Amino acid sequence: MLRPWLFAVLGLLAFSLLVWFAGPLLTIGGVAPLASPQARVLVAAAFALQYLLQKLWSSWRARRNNERVVARLSPAPVPQATAEAAQLRARFTAALDTLRHARFGGRGGFWSSLSWKFGRQYLYQLPWYMIIGAPGAGKTTALLNSGLHFPLAGTLGRGSVKGVGGTRNCDWWFTDRAVLIDTAGRYTTHESDRVADRQAWESFLSLLREARPRRPLNGVLVAVSITDLVGFDAAQLAEHADILRARLGELQTALGMRLPVYLLLTKCDLLVGFVDWFSDFDRSERDQVWGTTFDFPASMAGAAADEFAPSFDRLTERLAAGLVDRLQSERDPQRRARIFALPRQLRGLREPLDELVRRAFGLQTQQQRASCACLRGVYLTSGTQEGTPIDRTLSALGRELGLEQRILPPNQNSGKSFFLSRLLGEVVFAEAELAGRTPSRQRWQERLMLASLVAVQFAAVVLAAWWVIGYSRSVEQIVQLGSEVARFRPLVEAPPTRTDYDPRPLLPALNAMRELALERALSPPASALLDLGAGARRKMAAATQQAYDRMLLGPLLGQIARGIDALLHGGADVNLQYEALKAYAMLNDPAHFDAAALKAFVTYEWDSSLDPPLAPAERTQLVEHLGALLDAGAVGSGASIDPAVVASVRARLNGQRPAQRVATRLKAMLGTASYEDFTVASLGAGSAQLFVGADGRSAPRAVPGRYTLEAYRNGVLDAVPGIAAQLASEARWVLGAAAPNDEASAALASSQSAAEVLSSYRADYARAWSDFLDDLQVKRPAGKDEALHQAQLLGAPDGSLATLLRSVVRQTTLGTRAQAGEGAQAAVPVSDRFERLRQFVSPGADGHAPLDAALKSFDELRALWAPNGLSGDAAASMSRLERIRDDARRDPEPLRSALLALAALAQPPAMARGATPTGSVGGSALSRQIGARLGPLCRQLVPGHYPFDRGASREVSLADFARLFAPGAAFDEVFGQFFASHVDTSVEPWIVRDRGTALDATDLERFHAAARIRDVFFARGRTLPALRLTFRPLDMDASIDHFELEIDGQTIAYAHGPLVARVVSWPGPHSGARISVTPAAEGAVAPEFSGPWALFRLFDRVAIEATASPQRFRAVFNVGGRRTSFEVESDAGGNPFRLPDLERFDCPSGP
């Protein structure tokens, strides 16, 4: 069985398909509102959204109402209530706790999916029925055997018959179709305790009225037992009918509404012959309705009681008509006798039943018409087959003759019910909406209906008035339009006939017609509804728009065609002639019409050729008219140009290389694009104050916007292939060139042109940024205070200098060789040209970039300028200053010039000339003092230790190595204290400035060697030895498939692929170095070392070839006669693996 929600989805889908396919066929006043796909999608989406919102609102309202019902049904404690009323309220409250969130399944199917009322419902939404009857009338038995489904039976139970006394209290039966309220029999008869029973009855009615104020009940089921009907005498029957009439009257009075009433004759199985007649019926026959249903008008008028007797006679006559057939089908004589008696039994019930119906439901006076019960039908039912059958005929005859009555054998319970299931499901529940609403609700609906009718009539009158006003206004507009057209007609019918191509004379006529069309199309009426019905504004707008279009296609297009002709006849620039030839072809060939390209060309031609130039207002107006002309689609100029002129222009253009045309088109495109120039001022106001141009005064030059990363990525990379392909495709119809033999040839020609243009663009790109850096320098400070402030700004990690360098690197890093695509290959030369700067600002494996250490040099300069910076220890300050200078010489511009300029302002005071570092101590004595200070530590760490002794197995630790040579360590400290101010370290070799300084040449060279070791291993002020090495593969033997070099956990691999550089840091995370090649060489063992100096031990076996740069060298790895070569570049000032100062270093002698 399909789910209800699936029906809803299918319904929405069907509606959407209907709107999509049938929507364009709907026209209103000649307009198809659903012609566009967007409108149809919007309508379908709006319908689906409205349906969803309705479902959500209905669900929320149902939950709210159900919660309200449960809250109202929860009884408040009444101190003076009777025990009976208190017990009723207690049971009712317990049931509500279970039913607060219970949902009941309704009818499934399509309508179930579209309406909340027929889907799964809350307690409030189900119809409610009350069952009343005397004790023992069989109300509970009828419900239990009705075939209804009780979804909450497991929680609330199904209930049971409580003996001959009937149900003691009110029972609530919650089925999936309705709520059935089985009242205690004594509530009907008030025979137990009249006062208590009446109070409990009124309390029960109060609960219903509070629970469902709009419609407390949907109907009433009145149960009358056959045994009571047969056993009552005339007085008892009249009394029982009066009691039923009174209870129904009280019910309708208390609830304030008329309810449909269904009279159920229960325990029909006790009639003699009933079970014998109907026991052979199948399930469908036993479920049918047996009784009579009255017409609704008769029920409402109280005339149903008058129709009962004829209807019951027809019922008994139909049963008697089938008597012969039923007797023939029965073989048991005793059963046949009982079957034969059943029609007489029913006829015997006619008189008491008619009396009961007339007295309980009949219209006794005309004044009772509005208050009498609305009897909908009388039905015979049977719930069980227990008890002794009643033979009304034999009982009456025996009483008349004084004979003893013979007791008939009791019925055997067959477990079957008769004439109940369809009665409730298809008659009673199907008429749930017949019950009216409460008077207050009914009055509210009547007032709402009246208000709606008044609103509709008012709207009709207002709409008619608006239409009349709209018609009169349309007449006025037509007259006004006629006068305006008469005023502008000379401009339209007699446009200027200039022979040149200046469009300005056309502007008055074009502006007049456009304003007239826009006034009719865009100006709203006095009221939006005035344009409905008889309004002629749309027709007048269409007429004026057509006149404006004729102006565009006539005079304006003719002027454009004459301008193109002038360009082709004249000696214009070859690129301009190409565009003119292309525009001429587009105007005369709709297959190649391009509105955007044609608009750009015409606008450019107006700007460049008209004399005097167009005023800004004139240009804006002409561009708007041109856009209106071209936006309508392909247009034909109707102008023809001398074929000889076209051939001459084509011959001239075909002599130009395709790449030139692509470059020209690219330059024009970048010129019109809004790419911002790269300037120092764009980095912030502080940057404009720090940097100047090469002349030292003006602002630095800017990089044109067409050479920025944004232009390259968003413009050039996408545009160049497209321009090349477009020009290649245009060549046939613009230049008349022969078409390529196939698509592959055309694509190859296009890609070659694109590659050539990109190569030229890359060269210009690199040149623009090189010129920018060459022109850039740091403003020279005017004094010490300005220098201090400048050093503070330049040394900030996020300051102007760092931001500038990072921005330059980002702008010049267009790609790497590892990236795929032509665009990435185009970026390689630009990137490599600025490779050193990129490595300078890029973080290494330790997360720090060389730039970070360089920026700290500015802080050191500020420290030297401090009040005690230079006066405290002049030698140490001089050493620090020299180291800053040495590091700065290896830095890129403009950092190099800035550091050297600021360092030049910091000079330590000269020491007293002629004084020796140790007073009057001589040279040999000084050497002994140096040996005493440095000798013990040096002799402990250097001799017999690697890397000083290349054959040693013992290694000096990196920490001990730093104790000797790090900045401020042993050698650096002694030299700074005693000799820095007396030695000129700016020349090679170092020389002593003061002849009085007693420093031995061997000691001076030893300090110089220690300084060179410091500069190589402790660059940027590092406290531990560290190197940053860049490996770039150069060549590898063909016999090697894969080469791998692992350095301290960092892998460098090469497999005859792209020559990609790899940067590693020493020391790395894991100590060790090894080489592996694939396939392995037979008999060869790949070298592998461990320890902190493993990389140096590995390079001891590598052939190294020097280059022109001291920090760059060629390393050749040889494994079993197979070679792989790399270019290695160190961030230090020299080659750390072939450093003579390290291999020849000796310690000073001492005690």
Structure report:
With 1151 residues, this protein is α+β, with helices and mostly antiparallel strands. It is built from 42 helices and 20 strands. Among the domains are: 4-66, no CATH class; 217-437, no CATH class; 492-656, no CATH class; 680-849, no CATH class; 1027-1143, Jelly Rolls (Sandwich). 54% of the residues lie in helices and 9% in strands. The strands form five sheets. The protein has a seven-stranded mixed sheet. It has a five-stranded antiparallel sheet with strand order 15-12-20-19-18, with no helix packed on it. A hairpin with a 5-residue loop joins β18 and β19. The radius of gyration is 55 Å and the shape is elongated.
Please tag this protein with its features.
1151 residues; seven-stranded mixed beta sheet
Structural class: alpha+beta
What strand order characterises the main sheet?
Answer: 2-3-1-4-5-7-6
Task: Estimate the global geometry from the Cα principal axes.
Answer: elongated
Helix count, per DSSP? Answer: 42
Note the beta-strand portion. 5-15%
Distance between the termini: 107 Å
Which stretches are poorly predicted, pLDDT < 50 over at least 5 residues? Answer: 107-118, 159-168, 400-405, 526-530, 816-829, 908-922
The major sheet is characterized as: 7 strands, mixed
Overall pLDDT, averaged?
A: 77
Radius of gyration of CA atoms, rounded to a whole number? 55 Å
Tell me the total number of β-strands.
20
- Helical percent range? 40-55%
Write the layout of secondary structure elements.
Elements lengths: L3 H19 L14 H37 L9 H17 L10 H5 L13 E6 L5 H6 L8 H4 L14 E4 L4 E4 L2 H5 L4 H18 L7 E7 H6 L2 H22 L4 E7 L7 H5 L4 H5 L3 E3 L2 H6 L2 H18 L1 H7 L3 H29 L12 E7 L11 H10 L19 H8 L10 H55 L13 H16 L14 H33 L4 H15 L6 H15 L6 H16 L11 H12 L3 H15 L12 H6 E2 L16 H26 L8 H33 L1 E2 L5 H12 L4 H13 L9 H12 L1 H7 L8 H15 L9 H16 L5 H10 L18 H19 L16 H8 L4 H9 L4 E2 L6 E2 L8 H17 L9 E10 L5 E6 L2 E5 L7 E5 L6 E6 L9 E2 L4 H6 L3 E4 L5 E8 L2 E9 L9 H4 L8
Parallel strand pairs: 1-3, 1-4, 4-5, 5-7
Antiparallel strand pairs: 2-3, 6-7, 8-9, 10-11, 12-15, 12-20, 13-14, 13-16, 16-17, 18-19, 19-20
Helix pairs in contact: 1-2, 2-8, 10-16, 14-16, 19-20, 19-21, 20-21, 21-22, 21-24, 22-23, 22-25, 23-24, 26-28, 26-29, 28-29, 29-32, 30-34, 34-35, 34-36, 35-36, 35-39
